[in-house]
């Protein structure tokens, strides 16, 4: 069996054809700008064009495509594929309230379309064939334009107010004068760097990470603070959920070495041991997870 998969990131769309053994079909991985700040028509056409590229490839190879799995950012109605992203997040604002299942379905010719949180799919993928494979209770954290999260026990995503935050979303929890992802996210990192270095023209996490790697004290401080804050946020959550592993994904996790020490130091206060791992497939985890979700319906 094969599934067509799509990850609707705020910056990029990623797609691939994945089989039920957890293998991406050679030559099927594609990545292109998401155009998430454009009009509804532009965004949907961009998505459909990418999906049809995969579907044509599958057709040419006579593959048995059993469904389409799509990871979308929240908040959303995942059953219908409707985004409810607030304007301040500055992505996919023109899709607010749009039924993507209907819009995409009528243009790609696939009936079995399943949507889920991009963070949930990230953790499903890592649990299936990645860094979380050998652990039972896992928290997944995606660090990028926002902070996504997911909780899994064995093979089941858990959303339970007794042991997880509302909707399983750590990024939306109240923190200081806003929410967690105001600080633990790309915009939070850039904002803190500019606060400390007021004359800076630096505007991306990648630039700040490069500076930190080259010994810039301000850049190093920003990442050290990131690790400490993430640890402070995770401690009460981990105390309730009791994970044996925390898996980090998203583009910012590529700079884990810059905030590993302060994060681990905070987590040592927990009354149990917890492993912290970087995802095996930072670019691909959500695609594997989307395929796993499609296959689980059979």
Level-2 CATH architecture of the largest domain: 2-Layer Sandwich
Please, what is the CATH homologous superfamily of the largest domain?
Answer: ATPase, nucleotide binding domain
Q: What is the straight-line distance between the termini? A: 10 Å
Counting helices, strands and paired strands, the structural category is alpha/beta
Strand order of the largest sheet: 3-2-1-4-7
Structure explained in plain terms:
The chain has 298 residues and is of the alpha/beta class. It has two domains: 2-121 and 284-295, ATPase, nucleotide binding domain (Nucleotidyltransferase, domain 5, 2-Layer Sandwich); 132-278, Nucleotidyltransferase, domain 5, CATH 3.30.420.40. It is built from eight helices and 14 strands. The protein has helices at residues 40-60, 100-108, 118-129, 186-196, 205-213, 217-241, 256-267, 285-295; strands at 2-8, 12-19, 30-33, 65-72, 76-77, 82-83, 113-117, 137-143, 147-153, 156-157, 174-175, 178-179, 245-249, 275-278. The protein has a five-stranded mixed β-sheet, with helices on both faces. It has a five-stranded mixed β-sheet with strand order 10-9-8-13-14, covered by helices on one side. A two-stranded antiparallel ribbon has the order 5-6. The longest helix has 25 residues, at 217-241. The radius of gyration is 19 Å and the shape is globular. The mean pLDDT is 95. It comes from Petrotoga halophila DSM 16923. This is ROK family transcriptional regulator. Pfam families: ROK. Belongs to the ROK (NagC/XylR) family.
